[in-house]
Amino acid sequence: MKMRYFAILLLSAVLLTGCGGSTSTKNGTTAVTTTTESKDKTDLADLMSTQDYSCTVDDSFMYYVMYVTNNSDKVVSIDLNVTALDSSGSMVGSSSDGTKAVAPGQTAGIWTTFDEWDKIDSFDYTLSVSEEKEYSPVYSDLSVDYNTTDSGIVASVTNNGTSAADYVWMDVVYLKDGKMVNFSELSFMDDNQELQPGTTLSQEGTCYSDSGFDDVVIAINGRK
Question: Tens digits of per-residue pLDDT, 101-138?
Fold first, then answer.
């Protein structure tokens, strides 16, 4: 239902040192509206801080978005498995996705949709994090500029590096009074799925919400 190309912040974890190169995981549960918890952790997954958002669109489907910030000193790949639960705790849907080459200090976005919008009360998730071995981050090469409009967002991304950046995209969560009301994913790529060195590309996103929006939270993803 969507194209994935990868990029900023609920459920948080607090930093302790000591992470290896193997995959580590953490589990969590979130209500449809955001909640927060803090725990002392020691492995790579627990050096990630997370914030998730969800909203129903047109009584048709539900967005689920997780922003993950890499608080470790490693470049990592991140995989998310999320299960939607009804009010009795029964499973009504499941989805998985991920992002690669997340640099230290970078916030990346992972999102999915659920058709069981009228049944979902909360989410369980498992976040799997491993040190990235195949791809390199482009986070420090990219500069981002955006303006909000009455209807959404206009954004541009520039590749200031010396090599092409692959699969560069921006996740945009639209907020009204602190709650998610809609979502956009904007891609900044040519026909080869690349953002060339020295190139700036622009995109526009629209917030389809009767209530409008008063804030946005963005995340930028990419790799090389």
Answer: 999 999 999 999 999 999 999 999 999 999 999 999 99
The CATH number assigned to the domain holding 152 equals: 2.60.40.10
End residue of a domain, out of 83, 100, 131: 131
Burial (CB count within 10 angstroms: exposed 0-12, middle 13-18, buried 19+), residue 215: exposed
Task: Note whether residue 10 is domain-resident.
Answer: no
Q: Domain containing 100 — which CATH number?
A: 2.60.40
Q: What is the pLDDT of residues 7-51, one digit of tens each?
A: 333 333 333 333 345 666 666 666 665 443 433 344 899 999 999
C-alpha to C-alpha distance for 46 and 62, rounded to whole angstroms: 27
Share of the chain above pLDDT 70, in %: 81
Tell me, yes or no, whether 184 lies in a domain. yes
Q: What strand order describes the sheet that includes 152-159?
A: 142-148, 152-159, 200-206
Q: Out of 131, 163, 198, pick the residue that ends a domain.
A: 131
Rounded CA separation 85/93 (Å): 7
Gap between the Cα atoms of 38 and 149, Å rounded: 35
Other beta carbons less than 10 A from residue 210's beta carbon: 6
Helix (H, G, I), strand (E, B) or coil at 141: helix
Domain span at residue 176? 139-223
- Do 155 and 125 fall within a single domain? no
Chain centroid to CA 133: how far? Answer: 21
Predicted structure pTM score: 0.80
| Cα–Cα distance measured from residue 127 to residue 201, given in angstroms and rounded to the nearest whole number | 32
pLDDT of residue 22: 62
In DSSP terms, 148 is beta-bridged to 153
